[in-house]
């Protein structure tokens, strides 16, 4: 496992250090990385390495980058559908679309955020937060490209940095502090930028595993100090950057470092040293095929030669800069370079060439002014059209004012009539709905009253039959048993035991069983413990009586009172009895749990089993099945609430709630 993790770390390191390679070298290097990750045996580690390889190719080959995302998804199988990996797939696809389709990239980043915010396994929580910080950083960078620099800073401060802090990732935290500082530096808020640079430097101080991050941090902080005219601070920071550069000679940020060094020495009026560093920076930018950086360095060089009063050298750099500028659509950059070429040509006495560059400058300037003028004209025309429309509306309004006054009274009467009609119609509709609801409620109440009366009649009849069975027939059977026992005793004393005497004892035992069965039936019809000993004792007796060798019934009672009214006692008892009977007959389970409790003036009943369960949505179950109709009716009579949680193969749970009124 350690070797595999080391290989993965190596792959990521290689991906981070390929900025200066040619297309052929990139292809060879990417294919080499792909062959190396094939050695990883763990599926998830291998899928992660494929995604990181996709991130590498996202800057160079969209099709290949997408293919690695698809291969990772296929390798993960069912795990690809989890929130964590769905978030990763959207993140890496967003990275692929970053330069191609920024709007789609932003949508993919937000979809990734949605997945990574959901329930994530504990082992992936820190990684998920790290990815969320990365995606918000990328989202903010797209905002910055749209000219929304302040929004970008806000995203970093409000979202990215707090996430980095929450997982204690000082590298991620420091990098994004630096991103805030760079954005503030571009907004010319150098003092604020300095605070964030200092904080980032403190976080990454002494981190040998973050040399690249510390190097870029020292370089950018030095640039900010230079722009803020703090030359001494800039020199200290550049010396620190130079020290780290010795340990990372292949860093893609070296051209930027050389460029800042050149700007520093230009400020010190040491133009020879400044141009030495500018040349190093230019060579590095060209090696990396970074035309934007090369153009920026050439412009800085020409400005340095102008400051040193070396117009010929400045003209050479401007001519070298010209192809870069003319390839780009920016008119503002062209105007600036053409102007510098013209003024430098004047200094060199090349007036004919100066006229040529002034003409080009004028054309670009006219285009810029024309664009601005067109925009201004469109804006003025829009305002004029708006004003004309407003005047036309005023004229129409004045022309129609008399007509409106003439018909106003007619409209008023018509409106009053219409409003009256609507109000009467609404009142009629409300009355009809209320009448229908009252009628339905009355019918339902009548039905419940009828059912309640029927239940009370049934309970009274059960009570009478139970007393008759227990006191009448039960007493008679007990008397017959006693007489038979006396006959059997006399016969046993008079003569030795015979077959007839054995039969007599068998009859006595059967008579005894009959008496027990009769009393059990009487108790079920109206248990005496319910009336004399309370609800908890009677329910416990009921559960104990229904216990079987293959079925265990567990009863728990919490905070039950002893002063419930009789109708409530009987209703609760019958509901639990019916639920237990259903479970014993139909669930085929091995365990039933019965819980009754009272809290905050509410009475709760829960009956659960581990049996075969059922589908409560089936029409047959809703209408007649397994005795639920009586239970629902009893619950409705007590204004209670019944919930059924049942699934086929996973048992069933019944939850009932009543409001207790003393």
Q: Can you describe what's shown?
A:
The chain is mainly alpha-helical and 662 residues long. Among the domains are: 1-8 and 25-79; 532-659, Histidine kinase-like ATPase, C-terminal domain (Heat Shock Protein 90). The protein has 24 helices and 5 strands. Strands 1-2-3-5-4 form a 5-stranded mixed β-sheet, covered by helices on one side. Strand 4 and strand 5 form a beta hairpin. It starts with a helix and ends with a strand. Mean pLDDT is 78; it is low at 1-20 and 622-626.
Main attributes of the structure:
662 residues, mainly alpha, Heat Shock Protein 90, 5-stranded mixed beta sheet, disordered N terminus
Topology overview:
Layout: H1 2-16, H2 23-37, H3 43-57, H4 62-76, H5 83-97, H6 102-116, H7 125-145, H8 149-166, H9 170-186, H10 190-204, H11 211-227, H12 231-245, H13 254-267, H14 271-287, H15 291-307, H16 311-327, H17 331-347, H18 351-494, H19 499-525, H20 528-532, H21 535-546, E1 552-558, H22 566-587, E2 591-599, E3 602-609, H23 619-623, H24 628-637, E4 641-646, E5 652-659
